[in-house]
Design goal:
11 helices; globular
Length: 350
């Protein structure tokens, strides 16, 4: 932790694929509470992109080079492939750094519990980048549920679906379940986390886990059904080979329902070159607002602004003032436990 409350939190980003390039570096660069000091990537093209986009940051090829200068840093953000998360987080904590781990937190719940224990033993801060808690549509659902606009919620449907029968080559298409690969680890960590945040612990779970693409290393078509202890039933779909997609959210209560379509716009905007703080960033156009009410008596509801930057604003307060981290890593362990239960409950169809 920095000595002076006003000094920037000196940060390193490990990995400059989609995670580091799109979800972490832009927000760190835009937030005056942080300085983006080091980017770790061994890929020459990514190194060139990092130097072009973030000229004030130095780039190194290996984490060993990063650990050698750890005393000049405060925070490590781990955006590397899923199977490396636990080992890199452990090493960063041992190097004296506070740590943000991208989702999935680890491959197994035991690994996650071990990281929490290590952070506690070393007196370091540890959190998990569950950025989809700050999707505009999810924030809207959370508000409607909290305000009682739906009455007693009975059923929650949530989907991440798209049509990519031949996805681009990446570590995600090659990683096995043992390495944290597959759409359940990739997107299920978001959908399950959102459901548990809304409706609490899970009593029962069932799952359908399929591998549709020929030669695929892991699952790409998954359905998970949860019965929460609160009585709410959550139905969650994640599918990379869906020729047509269903509604993003479909929530049914005792007095009203809410339905929305399409994904939060922050990720595509960032990929297209937008920056946090740009005019309109995180806003959803009226044409894509969800609908609240009953059949024959419904109205569009403005979508809350999406705000991934809130994660880093809250983390800065946690690091400086010993406040709560934006995501309790114990929440991420609970999600991993449910993913392990889902894999155990379902047989994967090749």
């Amino acid at each position: 932790m920095t000595d002076a409350a006003s000094a920037p939190i000196r940060t390193a980003v490990i990995g400059f694929g989609v995670s580091g390039r799109v979800f972490h570096a832009p927000f760190l660069d835009a937030d005056p509470a942080y300085s983006l000091d080091v980017i770790v990537t061994r890929d020459p093209s990514r190194r060139a992109a990092a130097e072009a986009r973030h000229p004030s940051a130095s780039t190194v090829a290996t984490v060993d080079e990063l650990w050698a200068i750890a005393d000049r840093l405060d925070l490590a953000v781990i955006g590397s492939p899923s199977g490396t998360h636990a080992a890199l987080a452990e090493a960063a904590l041992d190097a004296g750094l506070d740590v943000v781990v991208d989702k999935p937190f680890a491959v197994t719940a035991d690994e996650g519990r071990g990281l929490i224990a290590t952070a506690a033993r070393l007196g370091r801060t540890l959190t998990v980048f569950q950025n989809r808690r700050w999707d505009g549509d999810f924030r809207t659902v959370r508000r409607l549920v909290a305000d009682g606009e739906l009455g007693e919620v009975r059923r929650f449907e949530s989907r991440f679906e798209w049509w990519k029968p031949e996805p681009p080559a990446s570590w995600k298409t090659e990683a096995t379940v043992a390495d944290g690969g597959g759409i359940l680890y990739d997107l299920g960590t978001h959908l399950i986390d959102q459901a548990v945040q809304l409706f609490g612990p899970v009593a029962d779970l069932s799952a359908e886990i399929d591998r549709r693409r020929p030669g695929g290393a892991a699952d790409d078509d998954v359905f998970v059904a949860l019965r929460h202890e609160s009585g709410v039933r959550s139905h969650l779909w994640m599918n990379g080979v869906a020729p047509r997609s269903g509604p993003r959210f479909h929530v049914l209560g005792s007095t009203a329902g809410y339905t929305s379509w399409g994904l939060d716009g922050q990720e595509p905007a960032l990929i297209a070159g937008a920056r946090p703080g740009d005019a309109g960033f995180g806003e959803t156009p009226e044409s894509r607002w969800g609908v609240l009410g009953t059949d024959g008596d419904s109205r569009p509801v403005p979508t809350d602004r999406g705000d991934y930057g809130a994660f880093y604003r809250q983390l800065a307060v946690a690091l400086r003032d010993d406040a709560a981290v934006p995501v309790d890593p114990a929440d991420a362990v609970a999600v991993l436990e449910l993913i392990e239960r889902a894999h155990a409950a379902a047989s994967v169809t090749a």
